[in-house]
Prior knowledge:
Blueprint: E1 2-7, E2 17-22, H1 34-41, E3 48-53, E4 67-69, E5 72-75, E6 92-97, E7 102-106, E8 116-122, E9 127-128, E10 131-132, E11 145-151, E12 155-160, H2 167-177, E13 182-188, E14 193-195, E15 200-201, E16 210-215
Antiparallel strand pairs: 1-12, 2-16, 3-14, 3-16, 4-5, 4-8, 6-7, 6-8, 9-10, 11-12, 11-13, 14-15
Amino acid sequence: ICDYRVSMTPERAPSDTAFRLAWKGKDGRPLGSLPALKTSLGPDARRVVFAMNAGMYHPDQRPVGLLVQNGQVTAPLETGTGEGNFFDLPNGVLFIDRQKFVRIANARGFTVDDSILWATQSGPLLVEHGRFHPIVDRATRKAIRNAAATCEADSAVFVISEDPITLGQLARFLRDGLGCPEALYLDGAVSVLWSPELDRLDDRKGLGPMLYLLKEP
C-alpha cells in the first residue's frame, strides 16, 4: 500500500502544504482524469505531492454527496438511502478546516458552516472512534482501493493499495497497522494515483472529484 502522511500539531497547522479538491475544469465540464487535472493546474502541477480520486460519483461524474471547494458548496450533503458502498451507513465526510487541519466525521448530523474550506463525502466510514464499520467483517470482494484516515492528533494519511484487497484488509491496515482511529473509504476498482515521486500518473477516465496536495510556493 502506498501512503502519504501529513504531520500536524494542535499548536500549529502545516504551513508548507495545501489541500485541494478538484472536479470541473475552467470550461465547466468534469475533469475526469488525473492527466486532465495535471493539465488544468498548469505551472502549479510542479508543486503536486500526490493526487487521487476523492469520493464516489454518478454516471455523469457528479459527486455522490457533499463537495465543498474553497468554502463554496458545489454539491450538497447526501443523507438519503440507496445502493452501494456509499449508502452502507454510516458514511462520512473528509474535510479541511480554515486552520488547515484534516478531519473525518460521521455524515449523520454533519454541519456545513463557514469553518469548512474543503470537503468530500464518501462511504462507508470504515473506522469511527477506533471501531470498525460492520461491513469490515462481511465484505469479501477484492479491488484496488483507496482511503483517507486521521492518525492520532497530529497526522492524516492517504492510502491506495497496490494489489486488490477487501474492505476489511484496508480497515485493519489503517486502524491496526497505522494506528488511525478514523478512516473513510474513498472508492475501489476506479482508484488511481498521481505521484511525481514515483513517476506514476494513472490514466483512468470518467472520474468524479479528485484530491491533491500542493507544496506551498
